[in-house]
Amino acid sequence: MTPKPLKVIIAGGSIAGLSLALMLEKNGIDFVVLEAYPTIAPKAGASIGVLPNGLRILDQLGCYNEVVDMAEYPVEKVLFRDSAGQTFWSLDDFGREMVDCHGYPVVFLDRRMLIQILHDKIEDKSKVLTSEKVATVENTASHVTVTTQAGNSYTGDIVVGADGIHSTVRKQMWQEAQRADPTWIDPSEEKALPATYACVFGISKGVPGIEKGTLSSVLNEHTSYLIPSGPGDRTYWFLVRNLGKTMYGSDIPRFTKQEEEALVKEHWDDYVAPTVRFSELYEHKISSVYTSLPEYVYKKWYFQRIMTIGDASHKFEPITGQGGNNAIETAASLTNHLISALNANASQPLSTEEISSVFGKVQQQRHDRVWDLVKASHARQRLECMETPTLKFVAKYVFPLIPKQVIRDQWIQTYCPALSLNMLPQPNRPRKIPYHDELLRAPVSRGPLQLMVYVAYISLAWLAFQLLFVAMEGNGTRDLIRDVVIRRVMTEKEVPLRQDYTGFQGIDRIMQVLVAMFFSTVTSPSPQQIVQILYFLSAVLPLITIFTVEGFRPKNKWTLLALPSLWATLCQLRGIGVIAPLYFLTSAFVSRSVWYYSSVSIKLSVATAKAILPAVILGYIIPSMLLFFPYTDTDTHQVIIAFWQPAPVLVPILTGIFSYFTKLRAGQHSNESSNRTKEDTYLPHLSAVYKATGIIAACFHAFVIIGCVVLNDFSLTDVLLRKDSFAPVSDLEDGVFVFFQNDCLMTAVAVFLCCMVTVWDLYRVGLSNVTLLGGLGAVVAGFGLVGPGATAAAVWCWREHLLGGRH
């Protein structure tokens, strides 16, 4: 590898420092690590949890197998315990789900073990120097000089402070900034570092009663425990307590061994498991430390040729384990931007301005993410310490009721935005959920345009109401329907209106109105009216399918989308032209977050996917066909029309029934099922549904278009559009014709907008390269060639494959 014209001085042989050193070495960048301790991996210190976002980068660096082997026992179960040590909530499949979703487990090992692995991977160990504690850092126009307490000086292009929360490099950087640019550093930052909690953490050996592969959180008032099992017979533990108030800067206390023992004595008899007290952990300890837990993200991480990473720039509480993992992330971000700048400058050294620009890009990329994670750590610590009566109530009574999917979605928000090294290949670790840097582009929110989408849907619903119901009143259709219901005779045909369908007066009254409207349409002598209603029913078919699919999507559980039968009922009662925009508005709201599209629970079960097509055929297609049979008995025809009305409602109901029996049958043939290939996924079955319903809608669209072109007395505008919906109608048939024309038109407009929002969403979350402009052309072409229903089916089928077929 060609050496790069850059030398980096790294202060601190920490996880951040050695990770950065290894990254630089793999990219041909010269470096030197200055470690204050006499050994690179002293036997002091605590444990570290290595999470998927950290392991993914370590995997790129060739450290993954060593880390997992050293840890021995990945976390398989997460347990939440009360003050008696009893489990009140658990994630028993935590380990499997973490690997399935994100490709990597969560492991715990001694911090020094990870440091040793990183050190062992560095080829030129002569560049890692011990007993070299940084004393001063001096910037110049062309280089930076570091002097250690041993009296040695080192010159490089940049210095990176990976020397912890009490960073000497950061203090030197502030002094340099004060001399050169006093406005660069906020003077209040020197005392801004806060600490609300303190912690006794330790490592114990041979503690009975702690199950391997478990991570336990024990909740108490104003104190909590975190207890992960470690390799061999090790157990790691953290006893966290509230300091009583938040302290800042130099007021943050440092504790003696006597103070540690006094705190331990207070909690000696605390239960950390049903048969294990804290005393057993402490009596079996091989090391322990009592320290305050500062938590902060500094406003400035760099000045000229000096930068800080890891705890020196962003300090976490240990409860979420993100401190070390985000130190690795920041090291990777720095490496990415350095390599990018060096590649852009060929063989020339980077100027101070270019280096400062690199540092600024690193902080810009990392700042918001680490702040969000620091705040999340603090919030979780407050909850587990049950700091207020409200938090105590939430911890004891609300938290155990939270669906596990909510927790899984939190993992997605934590791990998916994690970055990795751009220049090193990603090892092939199968996972269901992509990281953002594996997508076509980083996901972004809808921003202010989201409000415009909502307004557009609401406006469509309002316009549809005007064209359907206000126009019905204005053009006389409603009076004609009232006349039919009152006289009990359908006037134009002199056919008696059936009065009884269910035996329930309220339902039968509604049925009379609907039968009067549909009977006048399906028995109309006007070919335009027959063609229009056939076209409309076929176009609605894919929408009923979409309602059903979204209703059974696990991700939509606990949202209004999970009630497809309710939406179908509303469509039948108030017109799909009014309800479709409101449904798509709800869908847009539910799917507003970028995390919506990352969740595994966006995928349907195979049983449900298999059930939808039979349900659509039996619940909607066959009843719709029965509407147009040439019945000789008008009473029978009215019954058929009446019992068609709940057809869209039946589709999701039948889907649930068929799905249940499919799962039941699969359970009875479990041995057979276990031998199926992984290709037996929901996608092929769901694709068949979209294709079948789309083809039906496309065929009717083609039939109407061709008919209007070939036949002289057929006009597309006469079939589908009404020039003046408020003009008086000649009879009930004409009035109903106007109603269905407008219903179909407004449904098509809502579908068009929904398709465009879907195209935009898939682009903005990085799943598609189809831009809004490209999508506009495709959707317009689809509407013209195959119609709105088939276009909706095609868009949803495409969306489904992007969501479910990524891995």
From TrEMBL:
Q: Which residues cross the membrane?
A: 451-472, 530-549, 561-584, 604-629, 641-661, 692-714, 735-760, 772-798
Keyword Oxidoreductase assigned to the entry: answer is yes
**Has keyword Ion transport?**
no
What are the residue boundaries of the FAD-binding domain, all occurrences included? 7-350
Q: Name one GO molecular function term.
A: monooxygenase activity
Chain coiled-coil ranges: none
The alphabetized UniProt keywords are:
FAD, Flavoprotein, Membrane, Oxidoreductase, Transmembrane, Transmembrane helix
Pfam families attached here? FAD_binding_3 (PF01494)
Domain of life, source organism: Eukaryota
Q: SUPFAM superfamilies per the record?
A: FAD/NAD(P)-binding domain
Family under the similarity heading: Belongs to the paxM FAD-dependent monooxygenase family.
**The name this protein goes by in its record:** FAD-binding domain-containing protein
This chain's source organism reads Aspergillus cristatus (Chinese Fuzhuan brick tea-fermentation fungus)
